[in-house]
Amino acid sequence: MGDLVKTVAQTNSKEKSCVDVHCHCNGMWSIVQQFSTIRLCEMLGRGKGKILQAYSTRAKRIAATYARFYLETEDGGDSDLKGRHYWMALGAFPRKNGRLLLGHAAC
Fold first, then answer.
1. Would you list the domain boundaries of the chain?
2. Which of 58, 60, 61, 78 is such that its CA lies 20 to 30 A from the CA of 13?
3. Read out DSSP for the chain?
């Protein structure tokens, strides 16, 4: 795994201010791919890791991530908007069931 994506942003000292940001698809895809890879890795140092070998462990982490998005406990979440990502909760249930089945298999 390579170094983390570095982003440079302009900031100011005005509290609760906003600026328009224009993100392109390639940059957003890279950030999401990096986020996903980190979740499914055992970190071995700064910017280094290896994908978890146990399918059941990976399935558990994916289900937990789905649940955190739904419950708005993920970074950037807003507890006042809990449930807005209801489709993530729908994904957590089959993922959890898959994890349970994999837990009984010889993986």
1. 20-51, 53-107
2. 78
3. --PPP-------S-TT--------HHHHHHHHHHHHHHHTEEEEETTEEEE-S-HHHHHHHHHHHHHHHHHT-STT--GGGTTTTHHHHHHHHHHHHHHHHHHHS--
pLDDT tens for each residue of 33-78: 888 888 888 888 777 788 888 887 888 888 888 888 888 998 888 9
Any idea which residue has 């980190």 for tokens?
A: 38
What is the Cβ-side half-sphere exposure of residue 40, based on CA atoms within 13 angstroms? 16
Phi, psi at 103, each rounded to 5°: -65, -25
Say what the pTM is: 0.59
